[in-house]
Amino acid sequence: MSIYLDNAATSFPKPENVYQAVIDAMREVGASPGRGGHRRSLEAGRIMFMARETVAGLFSIPDSSRIIFTHNATGALNLALHGILTAGDHVVTTSMEHNSLLRPLHALQNTGVEVTIVEAGSDGLVSPDDVKSAIRSNTRMIAVGHVSNVCGAIQPIRQLSAACHDAGALFLLDAAQSAGYVEIDVMSSEIDLLAAPGHKGLLGPPGTGLLYVAPHVELKPIVEGGTGTSSTSLEQPLMMPDGYEAGTHNLPGIAGLKAGIEFILERGIDTIMQHERSLITEATKMLSTINGIKFYGPVDPAKRGAVLSFNVDGIDASMLAAELDHDFDIAVRAGLHCAPLAHRTIGSMPGGTLRMSPGWSSTLEEIAIFSDAVVQCVSKIKGSM
């Protein structure tokens, strides 16, 4: 029995309607949107429009033309950061961020952008007061990950966005681990920029992502090329969303993303979250019998997403993950999860943690098998020492 518990990296399996949408877009449509006046190109354009509308419905976005499709959340974050920040600007972020946010910020420091990294608590949660204290007169943006990919800590984004706007700055939310799992309303949460991947909680195919840009935000394109519009000008058009989606779209992927979000809307985000959270609670209970186990992240389940990160004293997390894969065909992830500062914060450097992350189709039976397998693997590894 193969068990997949690495949904925080990429959700699997996808709902059947996602696979079918990808196939239909390739086999039945084939053409690119905005690259012709024939019926196939028009149908491709219709799919793109409906996909934007579906995304808008999920995040309560009033105008779907403010949604830019990207290849992943990394692309969306790079567009948001490089498309806005200039020399002299100051950015506040946190020690819990993924490298997809920290690395472009580090690169921007070489161009004169100033960055302050606010240290989170050992449970991965960031204090809004600490963020407020880091704000300066030239703070242009506060950039925060909604849910930690390392330990699942859910940041208090409404308090953070309020502090951000009190300072006249922009609020960028990295929703890589929350989109599709946690309710997000860009209006009530006052989110100026929302970056999300399609292949995780939104249940879409890899190679998809999006960036929402509020109407008052001025964004510079960071990739120039064909848009199917304003073709007589050598200048990149600034109209939304065309000017920010240069080149051929991943139509099959976007069709699949639309289908994934439709599945979420039909089932209900809260239903999905409660299901996955209950599996995390059950796994925690079962694994607690292991001597020397240490769990990371908030103790309160309401403050943690569908991620369980842990270590067992004396056992390398990567070795444990390899044994689970080899002996039981159970997929989890071990290591630093592309977030080294987060591991320094929670105290799991240098080896990182073993992370399990159930999905919409995971079951209690799978969690029981996983937990028993961890017990067996721990016993095997300790017996060989």
Structure described in brief:
Helices cover 38% and strands 15% of the residues. With 385 residues, the protein is of the alpha/beta class.
Overview of this protein structure:
- With 385 residues, the protein is α/β, with parallel strands linked by helices.
- It is built from eleven helices and 13 strands.
- The chain folds into two domains: 125 residues, Alpha-Beta Complex (Aspartate Aminotransferase, domain 1), CATH 3.90.1150; 252 residues, Aspartate Aminotransferase, domain 2.
- The strands form three sheets. Strands 2-8-7-6-5-3-4 form a seven-stranded mixed sheet, with helices on both faces. Strands 9-10-13-12 form a four-stranded antiparallel sheet, with helices on one face.
- Helix 4 links the parallel strand 3 and strand 4.
- It is globular, with a radius of gyration of 21 Å.
- The two termini are 29 Å apart.
